[in-house]
Amino acid sequence: MCLRSRSVARYKWPMTPSEPLHWKLVVDCADPHAQAEFWAAALGYRIEDNSGLIGRLLDAGAAPEAATVQIRGRRAWRDLVAVRHPEDPYDEHSGTGLGRRILFQRVPEPKSGKNRIHLDLHPGPERRADEVARLEELGASVLRHVKEPGGEWSVMQDPEGNEFCVH
Predict the structure, then answer these.
(1) What is the DSSP letter of 52?
(2) What local confidence, expressed as pLDDT, does residue 147 receive?
(3) Nearest of 86, 152, 96 to residue 124 by alpha carbon
(4) CATH 3.40.190.150 fits 117-167, yes or no
């Protein structure tokens, strides 16, 4: 039996959008720029350059200078930064990715438990050990290696302790 909250019970199921929804994965963290550097290197993604948008917002008085920092010679948001797949489109005026993205946002509280969602990286069995070693050099650590009848993988954590798997 499927239990639904009262707020969605009035809708007929299944409800599907008329076209696929655009989405991004948001990761709460203590240091968004360090996380973006790690995950951009881990995935081969690009760190979004929002400096043009930030400059326009600052010039218009729509954003405070205190909300920004200088990173790699460019202005960036202090408390959030995203990485995007290098082949996906992006908005040239804002630098915002329009495809596969991960947004890292600063939060005051530390990580308090196991992730409820995580990334699985799939370099393949022949490249797994080399990829685990490369990720360790970037700052990740191995929590355990798993070998089960259904497969083999390494459970790792990024520099802030967020778990992910390498299959």
Answers:
(1) H
(2) 95
(3) 152
(4) no
